[in-house]
Design brief:
Strand order of the largest sheet of chain B: 3-2-4-7-1-8-11-10-9
Number of strands of chain B: 11
CATH class of the largest domain in chain B: Alpha Beta
Number of helices of chain A: 1
Radius of gyration of chain B: 22 Å
Order of helices and strands of chain A: HEEEEEEEEEE
Helix content of chain B: 25-40%
CATH superfamily of the largest domain in chain B: Thiolase/Chalcone synthase
CATH topology of the largest domain in chain B: Peroxisomal Thiolase, Chain A, domain 1
Largest interface: A-B, 40 and 36 residues
Mean pLDDT of chain B: 86
Shape of chain A: globular
Low-confidence stretches of chain B: 389-396, 398-422, 424-454
Number of domains of chain B: 2
Largest sheet of chain A: 5 strands, antiparallel
Low-confidence stretches of chain A: none
Largest sheet of chain B: 9 strands, mixed
Mean pLDDT of chain A: 89
Oligomer: heterodimer
Chain lengths: 163, 454
């Protein structure tokens, strides 16, 4: 008498690791160079509607005209929206789990009307509110490479510290 | 712009959506949905002219999976299109199928959406959608609580209980839907106690990752007439993208795509009062907070009204305006299929075939929405009947043979006119039949002067 063995299900495992090198183009290239070389945040301004864009792009997203005017924004501004993440997820760029909690935010930088997305240094829900001000903290000279992480995070300013 | 010819949905199929399907591979999963749709339609593979295939490639890490899937979806030796538009994929393939049939190039098109999410890594897929020059490092896949935060800032804890109540409603509905993935018995307290992901978004607010596939068959009116299953009709659809949705500038200066899509589509088809004129809405709800937020955008209601309607359970299956009788995306989310499931479920509702989760009232119009990670919205309206008076204005030579008065002619007069025109229409049908003939294995029927009848 033969016993019917339940069929084993076979699973194929695979790990993919892909190296990438992305050209930034002249517009984004300028934006990142200003951060890397001068700790300056710049945006471009549409000649037709006056809108600023952050990060800058080659055309105005609304008017579709080429944007050649650059303005400098202050490296500080107002928090307009934020996400405080409590659940660890895998960062596919590093292969490591993100440390939680961490806060990503949209910041309306002084001098323009566009928001920049980055991290905040505060991860306590009681200590952050929309409307609070924050300021960019740059990596030290020599350590900046021309990438989003040249800014470590935006430091939330308390009432005394905000301008 | 208007459609060249009306398009019907003649078959609907879904796999059983599950968290784990180690028992079959992707090809076999796709086959489940296609087989289900063929059975539902009473058709054969040979009746299908073209397959439109969709999923989010990065999730399974397979480039051009439609090539691998030809055995599973029956695309071998047929025309095929491949669409990948993020979360909207399922809705976009429905729109594409509608467009392809309406164009006259294909008579019967199968739209197939699927995702076997457990085989890849969802967060990687979503992260790779962000631009590599800035956002990719900061983006955390689909987890975001900023919308909920706005609601809590405005309404306090009341908003949290409303989101929880919506989640419970979706669970109650999903338990009435045998195809749904998460069919849990939860209370509002369970939702409020579930793990915090990104304040105020909690684990239970968030859609799951599901493995599943969905197939919907679209056909021209001529073909549909001969097919055994009840037909429902694609009325119209729209896709909206808006650059400024990513502004995230707090108090929103610009409307979201949901609002714009609804406004434009309603205007296009002549809907003045969506709450009254639409009978059921299968909306794409990636989280309970977004469901709460977008209901008002789609139905043109302010937030306070939406809160009140949630609190009196107006969106229940037996309620004033049923939303997601299927249980929605928070219950079932095989991403490439998810938006197509909205269309499929809307179609089932119109047909009266949704079984235990069927909306009990009579209605003529159903709506389905799709949403994608780049924040665009696809919105589709389905109708139970296509009135004769709504004959589309056609610029195709074949149509010129018809009398112009058809536009306002009552149904009775049409019948007598029809007979007299039988001869002329014969020639017309033959001509039109020639185009798709090469794709169709079956011989085009001649002599049926029913081209104009809807």
């Amino acid at each position: 008498m033969t016993e019917e063995k339940k069929q084993d299900l076979v699973e194929i495992q695979e790990l993919v690791s892909v190296p990438h090198s992305f050209a930034t183009g002249p517009v984004m290239g300028r934006f990142l160079s200003e951060i890397r070389d001068n700790k300056r945040i710049v945006a471009n301004k549409c000649p037709k509607c006056g809108r600023t864009q952050l990060p800058p792009r080659i055309v105005c997203a609304v008017c579709h005209v080429q944007v050649d005017d650059w303005i400098e924004l202050q490296p500080r501004g107002e928090i307009t929206s934020y996400d405080m993440i409590f659940i660890p997820t895998l960062n596919p760029l590093t292969g490591k789990m993100r440390e939680v909690p961490y806060t990503s935010a949209s910041i309306l930088l002084d001098g323009g009307d566009a928001t920049l997305t980055h991290f905040l240094d505060v991860t306590d829900p009681k200590k952050v509110k929309v409307g609070m001000r924050c300021e960019a903290v740059f990596r030290p000279d020599g350590e900046r490479t021309g990438s989003v992480m040249d800014i470590v995070y935006f430091r939330v300013l308390t009432e005394e510290g905000s301008k | 712009m208007s459609k060249n010819r009306p398009v019907a949905i003649v078959g609907i199929g879904q796999s059983k959506h599950r968290g784990h399907r180690p028992d079959i591979n992707q090809v076999e999963l796709v086959r489940e949905a296609v087989t289900d749709a063929l059975q539902d339609s009473g058709l054969n593979l040979k009746d299908i002219d073209c397959i439109v295939h969709g999923d989010m490639e990065l999730f399974e890490g397979i480039h051009q999976p439609d090539m691998w899937h030809t055995i599973g979806d029956g695309a071998y030796l047929k025309s095929g299109f491949r669409i990948t538009t993020g979360g909207t994929t399922g809705a976009t393939i429905a729109c594409a199928a509608d467009n392809l049939v309406a164009s006259g190039y294909y008579d019967v098109v199968l739209a197939l959406g699927f995702e076997k999410q457990e085989e890849g890594h969802t967060t990687t897929g979503i992260t790779n959608m962000a631009d590599p020059l800035w956002m990719r490092e900061i983006q955390t896949g689909a987890i975001t609580g900023s919308t909920g935060l706005e609601w809590v800032n405005e309404f306090g804890e009341r908003a949290e209980w409303a989101a929880a109540k919506l989640r419970v409603l979706m669970a109650d509905n999903a338990r009435r839907n045998p195809k749904a993935h998460l069919r849990v018995n939860i209370t509002e307290q369970t939702v409020m106690d579930s793990r915090l992901l990104a304040y105020p978004l909690r684990l239970l607010h968030m859609c799951p990752e599901s493995n599943g596939a969905c197939a919907v068959i679209f056909a021209s009116a001529d073909k549909a007439k001969k097919f055994p299953q009840k037909k429902v009709w694609v009325w119209d659809h729209i896709t909206t993208h808006r650059e400024e949705t990513f502004y995230r500038g707090g108090p929103r200066k610009d409307p979201l795509t949901q609002e714009v899509a609804a406004r434009r589509l309603y205007k296009k088809v002549g809907i003045k009062n969506p709450l009254k004129e639409i009978g059921v809405f299968e909306m794409y709800d990636p989280s309970s907070w977004w469901q709460l937020d977008w209901i008002g955008n789609f139905l043109q209601l302010d937030r306070k009204t939406v809160l009140e309607m949630v609190e009196r359970n107006a969106f229940a299956i037996e309620g004033e305006f049923p939303i997601n009788p299927s249980g929605g995306v928070v219950s079932t989310n095989p991403i490439g299929a998810t938006a197509l499931i909205r269309v499929a479920e809307a179609g089932l509702q119109l047909r009266g075939d949704a079984g235990e989760h069927q909306v009990p009232r009579k209605f003529d119009v159903a709506m389905a929405s799709g949403f994608g990670g780049t924040f665009w919205t696809v919105l589709m309206l389905l109708k139970k009947e296509l009135e004769a008076s709504k004959e589309v204005k056609v610029a195709v030579p074949a149509a010129k043979a018809k009398p112009a008065k058809k536009k306002t002619a009552p149904a009775k007069a049409k019948k007598t006119v029809k007979k007299a025109k039988a001869k002329k229409a014969k020639k017309v049908v033959k001509k039109a039949a020639k185009k798709p003939a090469k794709k169709n294995k079956t011989k085009p029927k001649k002599g049926k002067a029913r081209k104009g009848r809807k």
